[in-house]
Design a protein that fits this description.
The complex is a heterodimer of chains A (265) and B (366). Chain A has a single domain (2-188, 240-259), classed as Copper homeostasis (CutC) domain (TIM Barrel, Alpha-Beta Barrel), CATH 3.20.20. Chain A has 8 helices and 12 strands. Chain A has helices at 37-50, 63-70, 73-78, 90-96, 120-123, 132-136, 143-151, 249-252, and strands at 2-7, 22-26, 53-57, 82-87, 104-107, 154-160, 176-181, 183-188, 219-224, 231-234, 237-241, 254-259. Chain A has an 8-stranded parallel beta barrel with strand order 1-2-3-4-5-6-7-12. In chain A, strands 8-11-10-9 form a 4-stranded antiparallel beta sheet, with no helix packed on it. Chain B has 366 residues and is α/β, with parallel strands linked by helices. Chain B has 2 domains: 2-178 and 272-365, TIM Barrel (Alpha-Beta Barrel), CATH 3.20.20.380; 194-267, no CATH class. Chain B has 15 helices and 10 strands. Chain B has an 8-stranded parallel beta barrel, surrounded by 6 helices. Chain B is globular, with a radius of gyration of 23 Å. The chains are: A alpha/beta (265), B alpha/beta (366). At the A-B interface, helix 2, helix 4, helix 5, helix 6 and helix 7 of A face helix 4, helix 5, helix 6, helix 9 and strand 9 of B. Strand 9 of chain A pairs antiparallel with strand 9 of chain B, so a sheet runs across the interface.
Chain lengths: 265, 366
Amino acid sequence: MDHALFITNLKNLKFFDKKYSRIYFGNEFCERLIPDKADLNKVVDFCKKNNVLISFVTPYATDKGINAISELIDLLKEEKIIDEIIFNDWGVFNKFKGILKSKRWVKGRVLTKQYKDTRFIELKKIIPKNILPWFQSSTVDTEISQDFLINKNVFRIELDNLFQGINMKLSRSDIKASLYYPYNFITTTRICQSARCTSKKKKKVTIEDGCSFECRTYTFDLKAKDMPKSMKLKGNTCFYYLDRLPKEMIEKGIDRLVFMPEIPM
Amino acid sequence: MNILAPIGNVNEVNSLLDIGADELYTGLTIGSINDLTNYTNARIKNNHNLIDWDQLKSVNEIIVARKSRLHLTLNSPIYSKEQFPWLETYVKKTIDTGIKSFIVNCPSMVQFLKDIDKKVNIKMSCLAVVLNSESAKFYHDMGASTIVFPRHVTFDEMRNIIKNNPKLKFEAMIANSRCRNMNGLCNFTHQMERKWFDIGSQKKKFSVLKKKVFGYYYQKIMPYVQNTKMAYKVFKKRAPCRDDYKIKISPENSKKRIIKKNLEDFYKPNMGKECGLCALYYLKQMSVSSVKIVGRGRAMNIKKEPAIMLKKAIKLLNKGISKEEYFVKVKKILKETTNVKCSPFNCHYPEVFYNQNSTFQKLYKK
């Protein structure tokens, strides 16, 4: 089993140890948090020193976000140590696949659909046996989806850990999977809840509003009466915490574990 | 500009077309809710879907007679390998019925449909989350004809995407879709509702059993009781995105009260009436080809009202009146039809509200 460390900022490089063969760097959920050249260079230097590879993580993006990634293209092209690009938007894939031909492209967890809901802690006990595997599965476990990915030269997908368990048999295909833990993303929005959360003005938050990177400061714990477990809101995305790993990971096709020391925002 | 309206049963077809809807969309689920064949699209409840082939046939007959068009949703977040052989028959049968337009959400589904019939019309659902020109291009290259903008795209972004993809048609949502999350990137499940557990009949069965010999059936009954209780507990609220949340802030600081208030306002369940009439002016300017009313399973008046308002607003736009005059008139239409006052909190595109309302603009800039 391969181990990777997922960081979104430089200070989290302190969590690195010899167990990790790869560092994931970037952001999956907000184009305003795409790293700049200077930060990426620092991570590259660190990884060269420690002899580990880099997976560069890109978010779902607008045309503006795609332009922000374009500014990093030369660096991404030059540095062989950055051997993987995780894409969470088909537009990012379409735009840069041809330019970054030598990199391995990996379908991110935002695009790999799975049902993630803390209610499954209770629901898995009452869902009929013939339906439960459906909730544990993902379209990527079908031949049609796998053929499509292989045609596009995508041989790896990223998965979240599920309360209801994971039912996939990717080991029979050419596609491999990475499993993220312990922070699993549930939902995300462009109407960022954290942006302007300290503002005194009563105004409905819109997509056009800017922010002062409140996500770097605040984390919110969301607890609903009918939710068996609380959720973490950081920036524009909700997460749940699950550190118990599934059984028989190799059989499921999972050959890499991606650890996040902090919520990846 | 066309109006696309949702239907959840055959009876709604004529009335929506009478009001002014130009095209309709629906889903088709076959079998029981505990059957995988039921999971063909993003909504599994019966009132969101037609429930048998005869219904689809009847709807199509009306549609053909009235020279309209029906789009069928095939946009489930997940399709499992067990479903695909059946789905192939399902799609072929749908095409044979006369429906040749599908609303889909993922590239492999586009591929799947194009492999069955190259001529099918494909609309990329808002669940495909097209936020940039490149993903629109990606889907166009795969064979999609129309892109439905997700609800979280600004007008500038729409303009850019449309400009860079002149061969594609675009559709924007205009009513009943006020989810705070981007539903194409949301993994909460909406697939489970009270009916799924058949609580009513469980209760009935239980009361019948209770009257019989209690001891002998004890072991059989107890799981029933537990399941029913649990289902009640879990489904007291409709969906997690409409739940009431208690919010804890970390790190705690002096602004705690303000932050909490802002977050609570955001998380307040808000399913009131919604209007996007002002936005229609800009959407028309951008050459958006159709506007979509959301809510297949909603009550008829929630589908009717926006359709009526939109028809009137499109008529005004076609007359070529000035922007200012248009805004005044559509606010009147909103008031007359729904008795709702124009506000950013019921505006589908609140940025339009803020941009045209100088008072708010000044307040915001301060």
